Amino acid sequence: MPTTLIIVPSVPAAPDGDRLFMDIKALDGLTAYARGWPGPVRCLFRRGDRGTIAFGTSIAPADYPFDLVLVGDDPAADMSNFADAAVVLAAGDNHQDLQLVDAVSAPVVFIIEYTLATRLQITRLSMGVGLRAAKSLVWTIKTELRRRRTFRRSSGLQCNGTPAHAAYRRLAPNSLLYFDTRVPDALQIDAAQLAAKTAAMVAGDPLRIAFSGRLEPMKGADHLVKVAKALRNRGVPFSLDIYGDGSLRAAIVAEIAASGLDGQVAVKGPVPFDTVLVPKMIGEVDLFLCCHRQADPSCTYLETLSCGVPIVGYDNAAFRGVVELGDVGIAVPVDDPAAAAAAIADLASDRPRLVRMAGTAAKVGAAHSFEKVFATRLAHLREIAGL
């Protein structure tokens, strides 16, 4: 009986001499699959450009507990890679992987993150209006129809976030909801750290706010300073640290200076996740500001909660699903920085509520740690493979 798990990641890998340059998050996930799977694991990475891998590292493939194979755009071009497959896990968001459900004899499970509404929104945000945007929207809709037909012929879905689960779960015979995160059990905020955080909250010091992520319009990064200005106008004592990089970084820095917020708002740039960002979120942040316009299932949500940090964010469908897990945040209307500032001001003046939210955030984050999420996903794949 075949026992090999075949994974076709959504991100590429790039040759690096006799090594490979790979996305760090993908590497962590694949290692978790390999450690928990009762058989060999083979990963078919599309050959990509190193410059497109934002958070990468150079590795020796022999050092890892899975086989790495570089393929072209069509993962089914060499069917020998699938000959011993017990189950195939592919990216339902990648239209090139949809063909696998017909090409491979083994059960095919798709990971799906984006809904049609989110795809269309991203197109509008990135392309605006015009003939090129219209053609892209038509192609997106046609591909969505194909995606839905494919899911009906699949053996299962792993849906990242509630929007994808709500949109697609009924199409496949076995659908799983999960919330993506990179925070393992060992990095979750502990009782002593939570006590120190909440003590700082009730001390009445200026509220310590943070944002981390890509500084792009679809992430609402252009509204961060607008929220800060609205907080200053309300007389709320606060600081805002912005972690990340992107096309809006220079504009954000200029807006901070022009608004006279240099002493309160700082762009820190990208920092290592586990050694810098997580410790700072645990020890130095009271509240996370998330102006995401689109409903993509950002791992930022659960990772933030794992640090005992509540969220004030725009009311997109993905964040709405996170808030339903417990009293971990406040959703405000999308594209309304004044409403975000009002919600933050309410928490600044109601520290007991902020403390309660931090405690709930820590519990929800711990319940969805990296290990727990992957254990659930592995059990789902084993059920479908019959192992």
From TrEMBL:
Q: What is the organism lineage in this UniProt record?
A: Bacteria, Pseudomonadati, Pseudomonadota, Alphaproteobacteria, Sphingomonadales
Q: Does the keyword Glycosyltransferase apply?
A: yes
Q: Which UniProt keyword terms apply here? A: Glycosyltransferase, Transferase
Q: Which InterPro entries match?
A: Glyco_trans_1
Recorded E.C. number(s)? 2.4.-.-
Q: Name one Pfam family in it.
A: Glycos_transf_1
GO MF terms listed in the record are: glycosyltransferase activity
Q: Which protein is depicted?
A: Glycosyltransferase
**Domain of life of the source:** Bacteria
Species this chain originates from: Sphingomonas aurea
Domain Glycosyl transferase family, by residue range, is 204-362
